[in-house]
Design goal:
The protein has 507 residues and is mainly beta. The protein contains 4 helices and 48 strands. The strands form 8 sheets. It has a 19-stranded parallel β-sheet that branches. The chain has an 11-stranded parallel β-sheet with strand order 1-4-7-10-13-18-21-24-27-30-34. The protein has a 4-stranded antiparallel β-sheet with strand order 37-46-47-48, with no helix packed on it.
């Protein structure tokens, strides 16, 4: 995007508008919706400073050139708040797809995931884009989405008539989501900003606590991502800060510029800047993404396992002038890659901050010094965790789980999990090293009728429909269970710390 166009977009985004009616101090989504509907093209609907509007359904723009904002355009906590009400079926707060030159400005948008709950399959707090041009989101706080993103500018799906010229500037985004899945297996992570529009500007935003991608660029040819600050959550692991890994627009990132962004890892980012189709892939590598694109002048610091990684890119890439000296070394002091592929473990153990797979980067390239060549096809950099212990201890009565809930003990190079066939298994680098046996040929059913318990008596056992299938016979004696990352893998100890059972002993 040319500088003159970017400047004109930013100027238009920051010009004050004239409200078409008195500000709204109370009401619900219908209050705002009716004002948009009656105002028509160019309507400016403003909340009063300090107003809090609870909604049970989304607010939708109804015409081009409309605006929703706070009167006086404050940038602090007096911005009007729109919040999803508990018990609501809404996941999106403001919907603006397919309308030109709409503006969302100087508001606080609270998805209220903590109060209204996760919405499996739900959309973003803000949904804009589509067959449109000139949309703006500025000086907005968007946080705690029930769905998958705090802010989503969706593409039109037609490369000949794309969403274009979206301006996303000076917003406070996050927190967005949590790590992992809920009890029903629904992913809890969420993006900060998800951009799927062309020739667009994402500038000066602070994204604090994304758990999927901080800024996800879905191709978006001609777009500029600059001067943003992306900070990982202090409580949850984030997948990546800036992602250039998705293949919309036939994989084209032509003219995309990612410059002068500041990435900070608190608990952990797996990736700082991920570049290429294979960086995020899990199965057969997809076709490479295509430049030319530029990644320059970015600063990455703190707990970031793989600050910049490249694999699955062609047709031009410049990665220069990025600073990664603020990432602690060794990387094992803050993260663990023992569950990654051997190729990724190799570069992790070298404390490599800049990684590329030579066969996965074709065409013209200009890489800054310090890049380390991966020894093989490095796919799925989302494999690291926080630094893992060598053992974990459970007190009697503290462990009751059903099957297929994931590992109940994650250690350096070892996990222990309870499988869907009623088998308690310890795996080292993905290979089983011990199993309880006593599997159920018919499986545990759905919902699962199986449980693993280290009960209050100190007995460890597996159960199907309440009937014991396997046990350690340590009831009345066991006080603690220790899971280790070396043989004998699992021990049960009495109150004096003596081992009364381990995996080498008969049950």
């Amino acid at each position: 995007m040319k500088a003159t166009l970017k400047n004109s977009l930013l100027t238009a985004a920051t010009l004050p508008a004239i409200a078409s009616a008195a500000c709204i101090s109370s009401g619900n989504q219908a209050t705002i919706q009716n004002a948009l509907q009656s105002g028509g093209n160019g309507a400016v609907v403003q909340l009063c400073p300090g107003a809090v509007i609870q909604i049970t359904d989304q607010i939708s723009f109804t015409a081009d050139n409309q605006e929703i904002s706070t009167q006086g355009y404050p940038t602090d906590s007096t911005r009007g708040t729109i919040q999803v009400a508990p018990g609501s079926s809404a996941s999106t707060l403001i919907y603006g797809k397919n309308f030109n030159n709409i503006r969302i400005k100087n508001l606080q948008l609270e998805g209220n995931r903590g109060g209204a709950g996760l919405f499996p399959g739900g959309a973003a707090n803000i949904e804009i884009g589509g067959f449109t041009t000139g949309q703006t989101v500025s000086n907005v706080a968007s946080r705690n989405p029930r769905g998958w993103s705090c802010l989503h500018a969706i593409g039109s799906g037609d490369n000949n008539n794309p969403c274009k010229n979206v301006t996303i500037v000076n917003n406070d985004i996050g927190p967005c989501g949590q790590s992992g899945t809920d009890a029903n297996g629904n992913g809890q992570w969420a993006d900060g900003i998800s951009l799927d529009c062309t020739a667009s500007l994402v500038q000066g935003n602070t994204i604090n606590g994304p758990t999927d991608g901080g800024i996800v660029i879905f191709g978006s040819p001609g777009s500029t991502i600059t001067g943003n600050t992306i900070i990982s959550s202090p409580d949850y692991v984030g997948f990546g800060a800036i992602n250039m890994v998705d293949g919309e627009y036939d994989g084209s990132y032509a003219g995309v510029s990612v410059t002068n962004n500041n990435i900070q890892g608190q608990k952990l980012f797996n990736l700082g800047i991920g570049i290429g189709a294979n960086v995020w892939s899990f199965g057969d590598p997809p076709p490479p993404l295509k430049g030319p694109a530029t990644v320059t002048g970015n600063t990455i610091s703190g707990h970031v396992s793989f600050p910049i990684a490249i694999n699955g890119w062609s047709n031009g890439l410049t990665v220069t002038g990025n600073t990664v000296s603020g990432v602690p070394s060794p990387h094992s002091s803050f993260s663990d890659a023992s569950q990654c592929s051997s190729q990724i473990q190799s570069v992790f153990n070298q404390n490599a901050n800049l990684i590329y797979y030579p066969a996965g980067l074709t065409g013209t390239k200009n890489l800054q010094s310090g890049f380390v060549a991966a020894p093989g096809n490095t796919t799925n950099f989302l494999c690291s965790t926080i630094a893992l212990p060598n053992s974990v201890t459970f007190n009697a009565g503290s462990l009751t789980i059903s099957t297929d809930t994931g590992p109940f003990a994650s250690l350096h190079n070892v996990i222990a999990q309870y499988q869907g066939d009623n088998n308690l298994v310890v795996l080292q680098s993905g290979t089983p090293v011990w199993a309880s046996g006593h599997t159920l040929s018919q499986g545990c059913g759905s919902p699962s009728g199986c449980q693993l318990r280290f009960d209050s008596s100190g007995n460890l056992g597996t159960y199907f429909n309440g009937a014991v299938q396997w046990q350690t016979n340590t009831g009345g004696r066991g006080k603690t269970m220790v899971v280790l990352n070396s043989a004998p893998w699992i021990q049960i100890k009495d109150g004096s710390g003596n081992v009364i059972w381990d995996t080498t002993k008969s049950t």
